[in-house]
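Protein entry
_____________
===
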Amino acid sequence: MCNLWIARVSVEEQEEDSQTSQIDDLLKEKLEKAFHKQTSKVRLHDIAKIACEHTAIDLAYAASHLPPNVRPVLYENLPNRDDKIKFLINTDSDTRLSLFRQLDDVELRKIFDTMPIDEAVWVVEDMPERRFRRVMELIDSKKAGRIRELSQHDRKSAGRLMTSEFFTFTMDMTIGEVTTYIRDNPRIDFTKGIFISNDAGELQGFVPARNMMINPSPTPLRQVMRPVLHKVTAEATREEVIDLVERYRLSSLPVVNIDNELIGVIAQEDIVEAMEDLADETIARMAGTNEKFTSHDPILRRFLTRAPWLLVTLMAGLVSVGVMSSFQKHEGGILTFALFFVPLITGMSGNIGLQCSTVLVRIMAMGGLSLGSRKAVIVKELMSGLFTGAIFGVLCGFVVYLLDLVSGSALGGVAPIVVSVIVGLGLIGACFASTCLGVFAPLFFSRIGVDPAIAAGPIVTAFNDFLSMTIYFLIAWGVSYIFF
């Protein structure tokens, strides 16, 4: 579902990205000028002025452009604690690490006492374990227990996405009583929904915000509540959560335990962030790099994030060289012209295989590959690859025949018809082999628990070059053996 959502909003995001990028560039220029002042008095004055003129969220993104040792200066000049909390939540991990080194335990206690629990769980991930335990001992014990409980869930599970701060009431309470309670607890987000439970604590339903406004205060909640049709457990994966919210257009998703007791709520903004994280990881794997890589990382770190993936490509390339050299012992017309068409064979077959794998990965990401439809999808993709390879193989063979005929059989004195047959059949075989790899590689990776998006990355691309070239040489050798 993530890929579908990204495609739907991509046009709107282009305009937003243009506006936000202009803000980032402006802030970057201002901050660089401020931190290059010679006098510390002028510098602090400029920083305080910048902090007042811009939102904490924009400053949080701009902080990544500053040297790590001066980022705490920007944080300290924010006007109030709420802005400091927004800054901590929205900035990157490196900035948080720099701040944790500078802030004392008392300041961190004040921050975590005010910060929402679900946001605090994400922030403490960048805090050293010993510092985390020390700060948890200082804050409210009930809140510290909730933070520890949420931190134990897997990072990509519903338990990590949910918040433990929500409104839940019994069915006998009235709208007036609920309104008063909500008014007395402004720190809890009302937009996450109002959930109803029975006396045993089991989730029974929810009340839409509209029903709270159009019905009189004495109305009991049981008369205006609606059943909960979709819910998950804390162990549900991030992908399951995204599929449910995307398919049924949910504004929030309740999380329950095995006793059907409500333990958390996943808000829509958390779903959006999960979609963005999933998209980042998918694109990174398709590109063959680490999803945590950022444009601000030094060159050495960039190399280390890319090298493991490219090492496999290097090894596959060396194997391909070995395949090519192994055919040198065969005499005849094959070596006269076969090597000239290797780029054409690997390029065409690689693109066809990549198209198949990308289409299949997209279908899997959108939840369209069920057990019942899997066989039909596989057969259709295989037939599409074979048909495409056959069309282009025949076309390429015909073009090669004409060119070779016009040139007077300049390619080693081999008859034009032989050249065209070898190239045409070689391209068909290589394309079909690449199609098989492009179709079955995502299924294989999904079966062993690896993101199928890696099937469109450099690893499979390298294996595709090796496989298609091997098929091409085998066909060329077989045809050459018949004619010579």
Summary: Strands lie at 167-170, 194-197, 203-207, 232-233, 252-256, 262-267. The domain at 167-287 is CATH 3.10.580.10 (CBS-domain).
